Amino acid sequence: RMLANLTKLKMFRIMHNNLRFIEKNSFRLNSDLVRLYLSYNKIESFSVGNMENLEQVHLTYNKQLKRINLKNLEKLEVLSLRWTGLSNLSSEAFQNLSNLREMHLTG
Fold first, then answer.
1. So what's the pLDDT on residue 1?
2. How far apart are CA 81 and CA 30, in angstroms?
3. What is the predicted pLDDT for the residue at 84?
4. Fewer Cβ atoms within 10 A, N terminus or C terminus of the chain?
5. What does each C-alpha distance from 68 to 13, 84, 93 come to in angstroms?
């Protein structure tokens, strides 16, 4: 709801906060969103809804992150999951990421 009026938003950066979760449809009205920076938070689970133009997702240093679902983000090119709490990656979480060219998993 917070971003509902920002329909032309291309990049959203909310880093170094204490975010614990992002609702699946938080960005449903932001169809032009290309880059999403959520690093250095406390996000436990991340799943996307209607974000078909998303090219970059940065979730670095979300040490509580246990689940992720990015399937069907066909335009996604860069995914950063450095220093997260992920210990298992489901193959379903990454379905149809045909344009993914960088994936960072250090840590």
1. 58
2. 23
3. 95
4. N
5. 19, 11, 6
CA distance 58 to 61: 9
- pLDDT score for 2: 67
Ranges of the chain whose pLDDT falls below 50: none
Mind listing the pLDDT tens digit for each residue in 85-98?
898 888 788 888 89
> What one-letter code names the amino acid at 70?
L
Distance CA 22, CA 24 (A): 6
| DSSP conformational letter for 42 | -
Max alpha carbon distance in the chain (Å)?
A: 37
Burial class (CB in 10 A: 0-12, 13-18, 19+), 11: exposed
Contact 55, 79 (CB under 8 A): no
Rounded to whole angstroms, the Cα distance separating 31 from 44 reads 24
Provide the 8-state DSSP code for 53.
T
This model's pTM is above 0.85: yes
